[in-house]
Design brief:
By secondary structure, the protein is mostly beta strands. The chain is built from two helices and 14 strands; from the N terminus they run E-E-E-H-E-E-E-E-H-E-E-E-E-E-E-E. The strands form two sheets. Strands 1, 3, 6, 7, 8, 9, 12, 13 and 14 form a nine-stranded mixed beta sheet that branches. A five-stranded antiparallel beta sheet has the order 2-4-5-11-10, with no helix packed on it. It starts with a strand and ends with a strand. The mean pLDDT is about 90.
Length: about 200
């Protein structure tokens, strides 16, 4: 997998459909299911063993900077089936320390990762925020980041294809690598059940 850059852009790039993204190099990031053996909850392991999940992707990923914020545009083909109880979701993973192990388990207690998570517009209809800044220490083990971590998101959908721009503090990119994750709401995916990249994507200055 190659590397990405994060050029400076204007506020218009907060729109996932803005023309500014056309000139920014992107990377197709393949995804794999979060390993069932990595699930920390015994009930989840039993309930999902043998079931098909984590088949989303690849995700087309591009990065930019705007006034001290990091912008990440994620685009992927979602399910053609409308979601039910659970919403479609996607996230940007950012290691909090250099040399963090593979993102496939979404961090560990010893090597936590930051997770900027977006949930589709159904979340706002349920009174929930569409974007959260979380710390992940394993599949589905997420907690809100302390004060000072704010993430916003805007999304669009054309047919089954989602495009989402997540925006958060640029200092989160200090380790120079990122990852992505996707949850298919129509398949009841949530928490640690989803698709994630198997390796980090490097970001050059």
């Amino acid at each position: 997998m190659g590397s990405l850059t994060a050029p400076e852009v204007g506020e218009e790039a907060l729109d996932p459909d803005a023309g500014a993204w056309d000139s920014i190099p992107s990377e197709g990031v393949p995804l794999v299911p979060v390993p069932i053996e990595a699930q920390l909850n015994a009930y989840v392991r039993a309930a999902w063993t043998g079931r098909d999940y984590g088949r989303s992707g690849p995700v087309e990923l591009a990065l930019a900077r705007c006034g001290g914020r990091l912008l990440a545009r994620l685009s992927w083909d979602g399910s053609a089936v409308p979601p039910g109880e659970f919403t479609d979701a996607a996230g940007l993973l950012l290691p909090r320390e250099p040399g963090t192990a593979s993102p496939v388990t979404m961090g560990t207690h010893a090597e936590p990762v930051s997770l900027w998570q977006w949930r589709d517009r159904l979340a706002s209809q349920q009174g929930l925020p569409s974007a959260k800044y979380l710390v992940s220490t394993g599949p589905g083990v997420f907690r809100p980041v302390p004060a000072g971590g704010e993430v916003s998101a805007r999304s669009s959908r054309a047919g089954a294809r989602w495009s989402v721009v997540l925006a958060g503090p640029a200092e989160a990119l200090a380790t120079g690598s990122v990852g992505v994750a996707v949850w298919d709401g129509a398949n009841a995916e949530r928490a640690g059940i989803g698709a994630v990249c198997a390796t980090w994507v490097e970001v050059t200055p």
